[in-house]
Design brief:
This protein has one domain: Amino acid/polyamine transporter I, CATH 1.20.1740. Helices cover 81% and strands 0% of the residues. It has 15 helices and no strands. It starts with a helix and ends with a helix.
Length: 436
Amino acid sequence: MYILINLRYFIILFNFTIYYKEIKIKQFKWLKKTLGPGVLFASTAIGVSHLVQSTRAGANYGFGLLFFIIIANLFKYPFFEFGSRYANSTEKSIIYGYKTLGTWVLYMYATATLLSMFLITSAVGAVTSGFFQNLLKTTPLGITNHIILFSLCGIILSFGKYKLLDSIIKIIGITLVISTMVAFALVLAKGPVSDQLFPNIQYNNVDILFIIALMGWMPTAVDLSSWNSLWTIERIKQTKYKPTLKQTIFEFNIGYILSASLSICFLTLGAYLMYATNNIFTNNSSIFANQVIALYTRTIGDWSYLIISIASFSIMFGTCIAVFDGYARATGECINLISNNRIDNESYYNIVIWALVVGSIGIISAFGSRLTELVDLATTISFMIAPFVALANYKLVLSPYIKISDTPPLWLRLLAISGIIFLFGFGCLFIYSSYF
């Protein structure tokens, strides 16, 4: 009898456990349908700002610039979140919102997009090409490497569009997280090459300009926040599932927190393995890629070289594709709104993609091997237009532009106001450092 009673309680407990697990699984079924835009955001961010700028910051300044990386991630957060929030609440892109603020706002955004998109895709493409050359040992091919790489991006997006992009990014994301966290853990266990990782920074013009360039794309450019809204809408179309606002924000936060965490990981890799050594990063893209990969293999072991080479190229390739897709969608949306919906933005998607391919190759040809100059110029331009985009995004998530129930909480509004002040302040500092 005692055994039967205990068996009965065991069966009840087992059934309750299975029932509880089924409930939990059902509660998170929506995540499978919603997951995508946040991962795309993380992939876009992790490329140049993390793999290049964060690693350079660690190698050149140790942990001296950690504070600037943290505040950039903190103060920019609201404006990327607002892109996802606006799209979920209105089922329209935040670019549409710019038009509701006034046609002149839309024209300003469109102009800024046209001025920056070729330069930024070129910067991302130059870094990606470096890892491509390092992986396949095709440096002697020169500009042909860029032609092959950009053409491949164009073909993937022209035929696969969002569905293929979404699948590729998720695979790359898993590879990225695993390889980076393994290297990060091993670096911490091994310890730094220098005992002094917090130098006394002079904050001269060179230092200030690098800090501005670092924060310009940390985690990425604020003007790219419109992409979040475009990807959110596209994901809804793809899955035919309309998530709640909380679900959309939760999914976005996964990507943002991952991106912010990895920026510190890359800073640590640069600081622990290169700070206070005679090794400095080169401007040559293929040699630079080899130096970054050496940071991993020096810690994990030479056996991992091929794995890390593939993972590093995959990271940058995912960023490159996402940047091409984002600019194509944003440009198509601008054309659609300026023409008063007379032209479907899908009609211009492929045209913009291939215009970016040709234009970016031309810019890279002009810059030659001056990789860091190209990256710094692109990130600085992004930082200068950031305050105006941030101000517009903030206004659009308040009533009457979205439902009162969907407006951000008080703490997020206060953080956004602080972020706007932060962006305007550093913009003024950049002008002062450059011209006075």
